[in-house]
Amino acid sequence: MTAGGARTARSFAIVLIVHLAVLVLWQVAVDAFHVPKFILPSPLATVQTLGTASYAWGANTLVTAVEILGGFALGAFVGVALAVIFSWAPLLSLVLLPLFVTLNMIPKVALGPLFIVWFSYGIVPNILIAFSICFFPILLTTARGLREVEPDLLDLVKSLRGSRWTLFRKIQLPGSLPYVFSGMKVGAILAVAGAIVGEFIASERGLGYLMIQVQSSLDTPAMVMAVVLLTLLGVALYGLVLALERMFVVGDARQT
């Protein structure tokens, strides 16, 4: 095992131990102080809800996962594409970027009812809400990365009569990748929040919908389990972005 692999394994082990310690402390505290289940269920009581068929955990988790992944993928594509267009057309950036800043200031909860009116109930409006929340940081960080390229490199390519596409492919894109993935990591977190905002406003399926349904009966273990599954979805998406970053950014750095 290489030194880098050993460090990664050690870091993963530390993270795993910390999380397990929190779970053990949580279980011990609930048992020791006899905390009622409707206030704070123990980890064991929370996990036991997975055996209840009426919650349809698999179907609801799948719906929420589609909303999160769909909103994030759309946000990443539109954010990066707009950043590239703005880098090629500074006048367009001057005109449209302030408009995007203004639109981003609109509370996304306020947009939820409008999306329901425009697109009815279902997965689509929740994907769009997740997209509206996560795409802006991807746009900003990517645009910054495309701008912050060493001027000497740009002058060199231009002096060799390199085309705009060559300039973008050889210089701007590789140099902006750390910024792109930085924005995508923020977007991954926001996409989870966006999907749940949509499900809280109006939905017929999903983990957020399930939490609203069990809230009236004070079924706290089911609500906590829904939060845990949401967290796992967010961690999985964040881990996917980290893996892609390691593949494209760290891999390119090793090759050079």
Notes on the protein architecture:
Its main location: membrane. By secondary structure, the chain is mostly helical. The chain has a single domain (57-253), classed as Orthogonal Bundle (MetI-like fold), CATH 1.10.3720. It is built from ten helices and no strands. The mean pLDDT is 86.
Q: What is the CATH H-level superfamily?
A: MetI-like
Mean pLDDT: 86
- The oligomeric state is single chain
Distance between the termini: 22 Å
Question: What is this entry, summarized?
Answer:
The protein is 83% helix and 0% strand. The chain is mostly helical and 256 residues long.
List keywords for this structure.
mainly alpha; MetI-like fold; flat
Please describe the topology of this protein.
Layout: H1 3-33, H2 43-48, H3 57-88, H4 90-104, H5 108-119, H6 123-147, H7 151-159, H8 164-201, H9 207-215, H10 220-255
Helix pairs in contact: 3-4, 3-6, 3-8, 3-9, 3-10, 5-6, 5-8, 6-8, 8-9, 8-10, 9-10
